[in-house]
Design brief:
It comes from Methanocella arvoryzae (strain DSM 22066 / NBRC 105507 / MRE50). This is 2(4Fe-4S) ferredoxin. GO terms for molecular function: 4 iron, 4 sulfur cluster binding; metal ion binding; oxidoreductase activity. Keywords: 4Fe-4S, Electron transport, Iron, Iron-sulfur, Metal-binding, Repeat, Transport. InterPro entries: 4Fe4S_Fe-S-bd (IPR017896), 4Fe4S_Fe_S_CS (IPR017900), Fe-S_Ferredoxin (IPR050572). The chain has three helices and four strands. It is α+β, with helices and mostly antiparallel strands. It has one domain: 2-Layer Sandwich (Alpha-Beta Plaits). It has a two-stranded antiparallel sheet. The structure holds iron/sulfur cluster (2 copies).
Length: about 80
């Protein structure tokens, strides 16, 4: 199972990970990102793409599943599938 770590020493609490994660894995609490829904992570790594601080680490992830998921792209695709 994937394990998600957020480095609170570099997280600036911008909220981009919480906003962009399609599975609502993150929440912002006390100005920092916390993992609240790890089991639903689909390993798309969108949060890595958007984090300006490189604060997020995924452990035990399969690189073959790496896929950037953008919420706008997802909503566009839903019109067709
Ligand atoms: S890898 Fe994707 S599903 Fe998992 S926490 Fe990051 S944005 Fe959310
Ligand atoms: S995107 Fe990065 S810096 Fe911003 S809240 Fe999430 S972990 Fe913190």
């Amino acid at each position: 199972m994937v394990k998600i770590l957020v480095d609170n020493n570099v997280c600036i609490g911008c909220g981009l990970c919480a906003h962009d994660c399609p599975m609502k894995v993150y929440a912002i609490k006390d100005g920092r990102s916390v993992v609240v829904n790890q089991d639903d992570c689909m390993q798309c790594l969108s949060c890595h793409e958007v984090c300006p601080s490189n604060a997020i680490e995924h452990q035990d992830i399969y690189l073959s599943r790496r896929l950037y998921v953008d919420l706008e792209v997802c909503s566009m695709l839903r019109r067709f599938i």
